[in-house]
Write a structure and sequence with these properties.
The protein has 300 residues and is mostly beta strands. Helix content is 0%, strand content 52%. The protein has no helices and 21 strands.
């Protein structure tokens, strides 16, 4: 049985397949009661491998609740299967979860649950299939998506995917929610409320150039633009680095931005070699925003 971590946080994202139940982070139509999925990739410690993280947000209101002696309960299963370009199954993971409430009126108080499925893959083309089943009435949702896993090997400067999150805090614990001693509470929806003052961004930079100690480091520019392409935020951060790779942890202020869709662009310049790399993601500011909660993590 593959290991997976159930983070129990609120999330959203991925590709639009069935408009009634799925949504994309590029879409301007945001509904917390949809299913959302996010894929992130990072360089793995194993040579010639890439680390893939699949986040799945499950809106609890979509499941059927059955009456038991003491409460109402919903049960669900989620299976994630990966196929190579030839259609052969190469890896899979499964999770069985449940949620209980005392009264049916409490359904609207439930927050989406987030599951994280990690995979270690060689770079290349794959197909991912996500199958969610309501175990009370056996209704199910299937998502199939062609994906490309990048190669983060050298020698060129490389920037991982950008992980936009609710919070990032230093942590000495060892768990799948911690990267480089930073605990990340993800938000794959990239949906924030107008009351939020900050978004948090995590990324990794690989294959920095070797230079004199006086020059070695990176300069990172974070730019936020609205749908019209108008720049509304621009922050430049410089820091020293040690070794041929580093990571970025940034707090980007968003307080005062109007509801809508925005684009976050990150440019990294390697001061040792003069090389640059760019990545961008979309995020949303909405009013009102549904609440996010953290639940105990579990491993199966």
């Amino acid at each position: 049985m593959k290991k997976l971590i159930a983070l129990g946080i609120s999330l959203l994202t991925f590709a639009l397949l069935f408009p009634s139940v799925l949504a994309s982070h590029n879409s301007t139509d945001i509904d917390p009661n949809n299913y959302y999925f996010e894929l992130l990739t990072f360089k793995a410690h194993e040579e010639d491998k890439t680390y893939l993280e699949i986040y799945c947000q499950l809106p609890m209101q979509r499941f059927n609740f059955s009456k038991y002696e003491l409460n109402y309960q919903a049960d669900y299963g989620i299976a994630v299967t990966l196929y190579n370009m030839f259609g052969n199954k190469i890896d899979w993971a499964f999770y069985h979860g449940s949620v209980a409430i005392e009264n049916l009126e409490d359904i609207n108080l439930l927050t989406p649950e987030v599951l994280k499925f990690p995979f270690l893959l060689e770079p290349g083309e794959y197909k991912v299939e996500i199958h969610i089943t309501d175990l009370q009435n056996l209704e199910d949702v299937r998502v199939v998506k062609d994906i490309f896993i990048p190669d983060y090997q050298g020698p060129d400067l490389k920037l991982s995917d950008l992980q936009v999150s609710h919070s990032i805090s230093y942590s000495a614990e060892e768990s799948l929610s911690v990267k480089n001693n930073w605990k990340i509470m993800p938000n794959a929806s990239r949906v924030f409320g107008v009351e939020n003052e900050t978004i948090y961004v995590y990324a990794e930079v690989y294959h920095l150039g070797l230079a004199n100690d006086s020059n070695k480091g990176i300069s990172t520019t974070f730019t936020i633009t609205n749908l019209d392409g108008v720049e509304v935020k621009n922050i430049k951060i410089g820091n020293k680095t040690f070794g041929d790779s580093t990571f970025l942890v940034a707090e980007i202020p968003i307080y005062g931005l109007e509801p809508g869709q925005y684009k976050l662009s990150v440019n990294v310049e390697d001061l040792g070699s003069g090389r640059e790399e760019d990545k961008s993601v979309y995020f949303h500011i909405v009013k009102p925003v549904f609440r996010f909660s953290s639940l105990p993590q579990s491993v199966k």
